[in-house]
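Minutes, project check-in
Item: structure for the 185-residue chain
Input as provided by the requester:
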Amino acid sequence: MAGGILLITFSAIVGGYLFQGPPTTPVYQAGDTILPGTAIKSADLRTVDMPADVAAVYLGPRDEVGEAQLTQVITEGQFVARSFIEHEKAEGNVLVVPLLSPAPASLGKGSHAQLWRVRQSEPGGKEAKAELVAGDVLIVSVASADAMMMDQITAEIRVQDHQISPVLAVLGSQDGLVLVEGQTP
């Protein structure tokens, strides 16, 4: 009887060891869309266990990130690859701009868009015209007039440093701004 119990116990231990699966390591996964320039420590991240051999390319709580920031858009559920971080400040700044018309519904947090200037009609009967101000802006958020309880539609956008001056020039004029889906090649 004792031999049977010993055999069953030994079989359970060996079977548990053989079927336990590969060792796992915790890695970061985005809980929401995260924009470039966001500090790792303030990002909406959760930890998920992943097989250790696969987890080597992903960032996790075991990594010392210091002041590291993300360099690209990470969508909800995406794992944070080590190549997505840098230790320098991301280029560009966030601006809030008024819009002449609602942004396309497809433009949400993390989308890339074009920012166009719509010139008012000029004295002397010249027609209004449009020109590209920034060929690639990153959408931080878009607020409709209803959401803000205002009569103005606004967008919060990240623009590159060299695009700030042209955008501010439009804001200082009577002209308006419009967001268009996509980026210029």
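Outcome recorded: The first helix runs from residue 2 to 18.
No further action items on this chain.
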